[in-house]
Amino acid sequence: MNLKPLLIALLLCAHPVYGQDNTQFAYWGDYSGSLPPEYAWDYRVTFLENRQAEVRYCKGYSNDAPGCATAKFRLSKRKFAQLMAALTPLEAELNANPAQDDPDPPIGGGAVYGKLTMNGNDVPLYAFSIGDSAARVAEVLDLLRQFTPQSAINSAKNKAKQP
Fold first, then answer.
1. CA angle, 32 as apex, 29 and 34 as ends, to 5°?
2. Partners of 121 in the beta sheet?
3. Of 51, 41, 42, nearest to 72 (Cα)?
4. Average model confidence (pLDDT) for the chain?
């Protein structure tokens, strides 16, 4: 029996490029709220299971380039492990005891929001959580912000062109 094709297939699957999972497990975003286009902005930071992440920054109310631009970064293995170790219990708590969204949110102002997609669960991180869920959501959003380099946000912001 010729094992060469099987060996090649196994090596390709084990290779880091081919074995990486590009699945999104978390994102968070921030936006300016209702402002005239020359002052409005929003951005979203997406984290992938392969340790890659991306910032998409948009100026005005643009949805495409040149008003929107991206910057990528990668978490080290150590930082990724730290993030996952910190997120896992927070996700479990929010999944078991979901956050409550404000049924009457403020109008016009900016906010920070996000979502976790872990362990087969989608856990919303509402911009205007209420009750005890507000502190739990804020803890997760703060953690995601801590693992986002300000330089990546600035890079995407500087590439985006004002409409």
1. 125
2. 118
3. 51
4. 89
Backbone angles phi, psi at 43, to 5 degrees: -150, 160
User: Distance between CA atoms of 82 and 28, rounded to whole angstroms?
Assistant: 18
Q: Strands (DSSP E) along 49-120, which ranges? A: 52-59, 68-74, 100-101, 109-118
pLDDT tens profile 137-158? 999 999 999 999 999 999 999 9
Amino acid at 98: P
> By the 8 A CB rule, do 57 and 81 touch?
no
Amino acid identity of residue 114, one-letter, is: G
Contact present, 129 and 102 (Cβ < 8 Å)? yes
Q: DSSP assignment, residue 49?
A: T
Rounded to whole angstroms, how far apart are CA atoms 54 and 127? 20
- Residues linked to residue 98 through DSSP beta bridges, in sequence order: none
What span, in angstroms and rounded, lies between the C-alpha atoms of 122 and 97? 13
- In angstroms, the CA 72 to CA 90 distance is 25
- Name the residue among 31, 60, 37 with its Cα closest to residue 160: 60
Q: 44: which residues sit within 8 A by CB, 6+ positions away?
A: 27, 28, 29, 55, 56
Token reading at 99: 């956050």
